[in-house]
Write a structure and sequence with these properties.
Elements: E1 9-11, H1 20-27, E2 33-35, E3 40-45, E4 48-53, H2 56-65, E5 70-72, E6 80-83, E7 89-92, E8 105-110, E9 115-120
Parallel strand pairs: 1-2, 4-5, 5-7
Antiparallel strand pairs: 3-4, 6-7, 8-9
């Protein structure tokens, strides 16, 4: 399981999470795996206020409030990073699999600078 890699995982639900009960049961005793009961989560990490949500419309609303330094979202699988006029970083790391867009990507967030670098796996190939 991915949560056993000595990393802290903070997760929110999306719209295609069919095995929710199984995921929760498998990770219930794993202190490195924090999953929200809701489809969003506000938290403070590295001195920054973050908002995690699956849906871009909710992400934009949260970002426009100016209450968060960074808002992360997913859903449309389109890798995108933008800094809003109010200083909030609005970021979608894209999709690691590349199945929907053909452009596998992920993001690395720099908490000190409040910036996210998008990493594209250009030579990514799925072998049978």
């Amino acid at each position: 399981m991915v949560a056993h890699r000595e990393l802290k995982w903070i997760c929110v639900w999306g719209n295609n999470d069919g095995a929710k009960a199984q995921i929760v049961l498998e990770q219930k005793n794993n202190s490195d795996f924090d999953i929200s009961a809701e489809t969003f989560k506000g938290l403070e990490l590295e001195g920054k206020k973050l908002f995690l949500v699956h849906f871009p419309e909710l992400a934009m609303h949260a970002a426009l409030t100016g209450n968060y330094n960074t808002v992360f979202y997913g859903h449309d699988h389109q890798a995108k990073v933008e800094k809003l006029d109010n200083g909030t970083l609005l970021a979608n790391p894209g999709e690691l699999s590349g199945m929907a867009t053909g452009k596998p990507s992920f993001g690395i967030w720099d908490s000190e600078q409040n910036e996210m670098e998008l990493i594209y796996l250009k030579d990514f190939k799925v072998s049978a």
